[in-house]
Amino acid sequence: PSSHPPSQFGKTKEFLFSPNDSAADIAKHVYDNWPMDWEEEQVSSPNILRLIYQGRFLHGNVTLGALKLPLGRSTVMHLVARETLPEPNSQGQRNREKTGESNCCVIL
């Protein structure tokens, strides 16, 4: 029997986006189409949703096309709720804040 332990992290949902969509567009779309099974992670505003791709926070104006993602393939990104982006020079002091993380599976 394959029993998966309940986890509040790592829920995956597939969305369809175009290369012209920016990280901010994606955050808003996910917010507007919040999956039912992500209810625990529901946030109050799309403005605090941040996309992470290959370990890097994406700024809101970065488009998918600029990331040179393979077209027509699934690309896994992480979605986290963060009030502010971590400053490169802050020595991990923000790491104490608890963030709910969900996998956001983006398909072009």
List the helices and strands and how they pair.
Blueprint: E1 12-16, H1 23-32, E2 49-53, E3 56-58, E4 74-81, E5 101-107
Parallel strand pairs: 1-5
Antiparallel strand pairs: 2-3, 2-4, 4-5
Keywords: Cell membrane, Lipoprotein, Membrane, Methylation, Palmitate, Prenylation
Organism: Poecilia reticulata
Pfam family, one: Rad60-SLD_2
Explain this structure:
The protein is mostly beta strands. It has a domain at 23-81: Roll (Ubiquitin-like (UB roll)), CATH 3.10.20.90. 9% of the residues lie in helices and 26% in strands. It has a five-stranded mixed β-sheet with strand order 1-5-4-2-3, with helices on one face. The longest helix is centred in the N-terminal third of the chain and has 10 residues, at 23-32. The N and C termini lie far apart (34 Å). Mean pLDDT is 77; it is low at 2-8 and 90-99.
Counting DSSP H or I runs of 4 or more residues, the number of helices is 1
Main sheet characteristics? 5 strands, mixed
- Morphology call: globular
The percent range for strand residues is: 25-35%
- Going by helix content, strand content and strand pairing, the class is mainly beta
Proper CATH architecture of the domain at 23-81: Roll
User: What is the number of strand segments?
Assistant: 5
Query: Could you say what the CATH topology of the domain at 23-81 is called?
Result: Ubiquitin-like (UB roll)
CATH superfamily of the domain at 23-81: Phosphatidylinositol 3-kinase Catalytic Subunit, Chain A, domain 1
Q: First CA to last CA: what distance?
A: 34 Å
At the first level of CATH, the class of the domain at 23-81 is Alpha Beta
Helix content: under 10%
What is the CA-based Rg, rounded? Answer: 14 Å
